Structure formats: structure tokens, C-alpha cells
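In this section we walk through a basic example: taking a raw amino acid sequence and producing a predicted 3D structure, encoded as C-alpha cells. The instruction is simple. Fold the sequence below.
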Amino acid sequence: MRSIKLDNKPDEMLQVSSKGSVPVLVVEDSLVIEESLEIMLWALEQNDPDDLLWADSPSALTEMLAFIDEFERSFIPAMNTFACAKRYHEDNTNELRTYCEAELSKLEHRLSQHAFIFSEQETLVDIALLPFLRKYARVDKQWFRNSPYLNLKNWLNGYIQSPLFSKVMKHYELWTDNRIDQDFGPN
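The resulting C-alpha cell sequence is shown next.
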């Protein structure tokens, strides 16, 4: 594991991935994975002890990927625009938040029907959407805390307060400072 600052990208990173953004997973010299979802899929193909991909259901992965794709296309650009407007105190913040709320309402409805976004069982969908929903909740913490999305807030808090989340979100010393790789995962 190498923690870096995007405004100080090491040459070693740019040599394996010219896109210059994170994450990047170098499995071996011939396999470099540069997208979060692809990294999740690769990792779960190696080991999926909680059956997040629903191995026994042939169509499930296709349905999950379609759901994630729709969410990424509709929510993420709106969330990023909202976050930028909020940061720079622009006049259209409430309008942009309302646009995001259309997606939040869909998730709230799904979570009113079952414990996780896709079903009663945790799936890749939950793990893939988690970082974006966490980011959204942090844009305007007070608003989100007071928002009517009780099921979504409970779902998000369930992850954020879990011991696994604390382990995954551990902060590492910047690799550019010490050039020491950090082990990640089970030892």
C-alpha cells in the first residue's frame, strides 16, 4: 500500500498508471487495475467470504453492475457539483442538493424494504456506493443529520461505526516521505 498526495504524484506511480489518479492496484507487472469498481471485483474474485457477488445467482452480478452504473451516472456528477457549490458558497447549493435528493429518495425507499440497498443481504452494491454516500453526507453534515432519510442514515452509520470500516480507513504515512510500502489486508 502506498499513500500519496495527488498534488505530489511520485514518478513510480505515473510509470505504472499514466492516468495520474487513484486508486491504482498493481497486481503484477502485467496487471494494473485503475478503477475502484474493477479493483473491488478483482478482490472479490480472489476471495468473497461474504458472497457479495452472489455466486449462486448467474444474473445477479449483471444486475448489480447495472445498478451501480446508473447510480454513478446520475448521482456522482450531481454530488460533485453540489460539493463544489457548497465549498465555494454558491447561490445554487439548495437546487443542487435537491437534485441529489432524487437519488437519495430512491435509496431511502429501497432501504425501507430491506436491510441493504440491493436486498436483505449485503452485496457489492453497498460497498460500491458507500464512499460516495459518505462523501455526500460530509458535504453538509448538519443538513444530512437533520434530513428525512432515516434508513439511509442508519445504513451509513452502520458502516461508519463498524470495526472493519475503521481498519479499512486507516491513515498511512505518505509513501513519498519514506518510500516504505505498507502491508494491506490479512497478514
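Looking at the output, two observations stand out. The beta strands are 25-28, 31-33. The CA atoms of residues 2 and 179 lie 8 Å apart. In the next section we compare this with other chains.
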